[in-house]
Amino acid sequence: MLDGRVAIVTGGRRGLGEGVVRRFAAEGATVVVADLAPAESLLDELTPSGGEHRSVAVDVRSAEQMDGLVQDTLSWYGRLDIVVNNAGVMDSGAEVADLTDAEYDLVLDVNVRGVFNGCRAAARVFRGQPRGRIINTASYIGKKAIAGHALYSASKAAVISLTQALALELGRYGTTVNSICPGTMYTPMWVEKLPTFVGEENPDVEQWRHRAAAGIPAGRMGTGADVGAMAAWLAGDDADFVTGAALNLTGGEAVFF
Ligand SMILES: NC(=O)c1ccc[n+]([C@@H]2O[C@H](COP(=O)([O-])OP(=O)(O)OC[C@H]3O[C@@H](n4cnc5c(N)ncnc54)[C@H](O)[C@@H]3O)[C@@H](O)[C@H]2O)c1
Known about the structure:
Blueprint: E1 6-10, H1 15-26, E2 30-35, H2 40-46, E3 54-57, H3 63-77, E4 82-85, H4 101-126, E5 132-137, H5 150-170, E6 175-182, H6 188-198, H7 205-214, H8 224-235, E7 246-249
Parallel strand pairs: 1-2, 1-4, 2-3, 4-5, 5-6, 6-7
Helix pairs in contact: 1-8, 3-4, 4-5
The protein binds nicotinamide-adenine-dinucleotide (NAD).
The site of nicotinamide-adenine-dinucleotide (NAD) has 28 residues, from helix 1, helix 4 and helix 6.
């Protein structure tokens, strides 16, 4: 359980981040949902679980905004226990020869600089307290490159590596730093990118969902609830000895270290 803990979850308004927010709130944590747009309707649903949650509009690409988010959280609640750097964007699926500088900037800025900004802001706080948790959302594609997704692969490999280095730095302060590497997950991002993935203008989402599930040993796509469950375990006391890990969460879609 996460009773009394205070958590920040970036990209928490929908998709995998929403799954983390819901699980943390259900386990008794107070959650600050940080996303480009406010998440008021999600907050309304969480409030019955008792926490005094908040929603903050933040662009993770801005160090100033991420530093401000952490300072605001400390001033609202007097503590910060968990930071989940989950906000991320997919690339367009273009091959390297066709990629634009603008796409490079977007994918690397959100997926790497955004996670870095969150890690740095959290590390400055966690260095001064006996315990902390940083959880970064990477991807199995950070371990296994896929043609057409060079920028996304590179960005997620960077997240895994950043996570490992920070785990080495923060171990002596009682802070663990881990990344979660989801497989193909059913989220708004996946639905929005489906036309590009499958080369159809109006793909039948349910049909493609079943097809995707058929390629996964567990027989289904992953969801935010799966990420929420793993994040809650990493955030809790049972995972005190787990740090520097890049944990696959793929239903068997990807089986490697
Ligand atoms: N869906 C998948 O199959 C999958 C697989 C592996 C990893 N991931 C990773 O999981 C994370 C969440 O993915 P998702 O599928 O839930 O995506 P999503 O697009 O459904 O949700 C992402 C959220 O992040 C927010 N966000 C994007 N850019 C932001 C920024 N600059 N500042 C603040 N918030 C921002 C969005 O507004 C959105 O609410 C991402 O890091 C993604 O790369 C997703």
